[in-house]
Amino acid sequence: MSNPSDSPTILLETTDLFFRAKLDGIVMGGVSAGALPADLAVIELGRPDATDRIRALVESGVPVLAFGSHVAAAQLRAARDAGATAVPNSQVE
User: Fold this and answer.
1) CA distance 76 to 43
2) Percentage of the chain with pLDDT > 90?
């Protein structure tokens, strides 16, 4: 059994319960966190402050994976411009 303190801490910020369950399953080896510090942040796009949140996390040294609708190209582009790796929802699945 691995030591929980050796597991990465992953900040999940999503309001979509479907994706939350999927992400919790994907994280498996990591520890899901509700706050910082974290080794990785996974952020759902669509919130009005998503780009600002991504920028703040990246500036603090936290890598960010952002996801959103494939038809929201401007949101995905803005997330990339803010320093995140941004992918459509289908790539999260």
Assistant:
1) 11
2) 49
